[in-house]
Design goal:
This protein is mainly α. It is built from three helices and two strands; from the N terminus they run βααβα. A two-stranded antiparallel ribbon has the order 1-2.
Length: about 110
């Protein structure tokens, strides 16, 4: 018998732990980024006000928009991993490919 493709066998319990850890990671990032957006927003509001008082135009919103984009990405990933964890079939063995490992953020693909 020839092995055509590498696959990793992982129990449903191990998979659930992994997926829940990724959900926590992304949830934590969401909280950090929310705080950063608030902090940056306040700083940029101050900068915009100073620019206005000086008769100048400030284009400082792009930094906050970048943070908001990252926040959305992490929120979406947290939602994905929470949903995934809730739908893992107990007492099964899953065979994962490199693509699966990249989707689970174990490796980059």
């Amino acid at each position: 018998m020839a092995i055509k493709e590498l696959r990793l066998a992982i129990t449903s319990s191990e998979l659930k732990d992994l997926v829940e850890a990724r959900a926590r990671y992304h949830t934590d990032r969401v909280e950090l980024l929310k705080a950063e957006v608030t902090r940056m927003g306040e700083l940029l509001d101050d900068m915009d006000e100073e620019a206005s008082l000086a008769g100048k135009f400030s284009n400082s919103g792009s930094a906050v928009n970048s943070l908001k984009s990252k926040l959305k990405k992490h929120r979406d990933q947290a939602t994905y991993f929470k949903f995934f964890a809730a739908h893992i079939v107990p007492n099964e063995t899953y065979e994962l490919t490199q693509h699966d490992l990249a989707t689970l953020e174990v490796v980059e693909y």
